[in-house]
Amino acid sequence: MADGIDEPLVRRLIAAQFPHWAGLDVRQVASAGTDNAMFRLGDDLVVRLPKAEWATGQIEREHRWLPRLSPSLPLATPTPVGTGVPGEDFGRPWGVYRWLDGADAWAAPVKDLAHAAEALGRFGVALRTVDVTGGPRSFRGGAVTEWEEGAFPSAAAALAAAGLLGERAALAAWDQVLALPAWDRPPVWLHGDLLPGNLLTRDGRLTAVIDFGGLGTGDPAADLLPAWTLLTPATRPLFRTASAVDDATWARGRGWALCWGIVTDHYYGDLGGPGTAPTPNPVLAAVARRAWTEALAEFG
C-alpha cells in the first residue's frame, strides 16, 4: 500500500478518532487515482486519505467548500461527515464521507453520452454561478502553460519518438494554443479534475461528480476536458451548448485537452526515461491518449 495506507491503519484511525464507527467493516476501494486512497466504512461511508504530500490540503478544501457548493449543483456530490487529523502513524488530515453508489466512468463507461454531455454542461454553469469570495485558486485555474511548466515540447517529442504522434502536427497545434487570448474576466469556480475516474455512473448514466481536491477558482477552461476525454464528436456540441462558454474559452479547453493529454500520456505511460512516473498508470495514460487524440484531430 502507498505510504503504508492499508485497512489496519484505517481501523486504527477510526477507532481513535471516531469510536462510534469502530465496529464497521473496512475494505479498500480499487482506484487508479493518484492522490487519495479510499476505503469503504460499513455500507454507507467512505474514508479518503491522501497518498502523497502534494495531496495534503485537499480534504480540508472539500470539507470547507462542498457544503456551500453542493446545494447549487445538478449532480450528486460527496457529503463530508467527519474530518480526521494526523495520528496513528498517519501524518496528514483525512476525511469521512457518505458513500455514493455507482462506478467510475472508466470502469463503467457512460452509455447515454447525450445525457452526460448536457448534465456536465449544466454542472459547470451552476458551479460558475456560486459566489467565489474567499475561494482558493484552482491548480488548473490559470493558463495551461502555468500547469505544464514547459513540459509539452519534450513530452510531444517523446511520444513522437515512440511512434505515437506526429511531432510537427502537435507543435503546430501547440502554437495555436499559445496564441489564444487569456481569460480576462473575474475568476469563477471550477472542479479542476473532471476526468472519467471522477465521474460516477449507474446503469450507464452519469449520476455524480466526486473528488473535489482540485476545486478552486480561475478560468473555467480546464473543466471542458470531458469534451475530449469522455464525449464523442457527435455529443461534444451538446456539451458545448450546455456549458454556455464563448469561443475563446472553448478553444482554451481544447488546448487543455491537447496539453494535459500529451504531458500526462508521456508521464504515466509505459515509456520510461526522463520526465516519466516511477510507476506507470495505464488508466490515466489511456484517458490522456484519448484526450490528445480527439483534440489534435480538431486542429487545422
Provide a descriptive summary of the structure in words.
- By secondary structure, the chain is of the alpha+beta class.
- The chain has helices at 7-17, 58-69, 113-129, 144-148, 152-161, 167-178, 226-229, 236-243, 247-268, 282-296; strands at residues 26-29, 36-41, 45-50, 80-84, 94-98, 103-104, 188-190, 199-202, 205-209, 216-218.
- The chain has a 5-stranded antiparallel sheet with strand order 1-2-3-5-4, sandwiched between helices. It has a 3-stranded antiparallel sheet with strand order 6-8-9.
- α3 (113-129) packs parallel to α8, α5 packs antiparallel against α6 (167-178) and α9 runs antiparallel to α10.
- The longest helix is centred in the C-terminal third of the chain and has 22 residues, at 247-268.
- It is globular, with a radius of gyration of 19 Å.
- The N and C termini lie far apart (45 Å).
- The model has no long low-confidence stretch (mean pLDDT 95).
Strand-helix topology:
Blueprint: H1 7-17, E1 26-29, E2 36-41, E3 45-50, H2 58-69, E4 80-84, E5 94-98, E6 103-104, H3 113-129, H4 144-148, H5 152-161, H6 167-178, E7 188-190, E8 199-202, E9 205-209, E10 216-218, H7 226-229, H8 236-243, H9 247-268, H10 282-296
Antiparallel strand pairs: 1-2, 2-3, 3-5, 4-5, 6-8, 7-10, 8-9
Helix pairs in contact: 3-8, 5-6, 5-9, 6-9, 9-10
